[in-house]
Prior knowledge:
Strand order of the largest sheet: 7-8-9-6-5-10
CATH topology of the largest domain: Immunoglobulin-like
Shape: elongated
Distance between the termini: 26 Å
Strand content: 35-45%
Number of strands: 13
Number of helices: 0
Order of helices and strands: EEEEEEEEEEEEE
Helix content: under 10%
Radius of gyration: 20 Å
CATH class of the largest domain: Mainly Beta
Amino acid sequence: MAAGNTTDTRTHVMGDMLMITGTFTDGGIDVSYAGQLSTVFAAGGHVTSVHSTLVQLNDGDDMAIGDTAMVVDTADVRLHFNVGETIYSSTGSRIGVITAIASATALTIGAGVLEAVADDAVLHKLGPYTGAITLTDGNLSVSVDETNEFVVFGNGNLGATSTAHTQDGRWWILGQR
């Protein structure tokens, strides 16, 4: 998988074990452990960016802090969110947790929104791209290629026509020196 990589790879020595950590951009990365580890014990990672759901607030005016009823448009909210999920702004700020979805265009934020939301603002989710009902795979997968000494962090495909990933994250590899 061709993906970007911020070159901040770090090593952490723990007895005869070594942990290698770093970050990825654009959806994943292949990390070589050749010359550093003889065996990989475990590897993992997580996505740190928010992604757009294309669902927009359709309130006529802004939602104030504490408002609970949210009316949306441009996409069926049931395809992008489930009850219990957190809505984020484009900057990564928490807006609130969904406690009910009444229809394709109406949902409830039980404790009220945590920050004002402008009319027509696009709602976001944190982490891998996943819809409530999905035909895409935005989950982060981790595989170890022991033959070629690589750990492969993949971030799925954002859809049939997707050609670029936009999710960023952090990764780690633990092994024997």
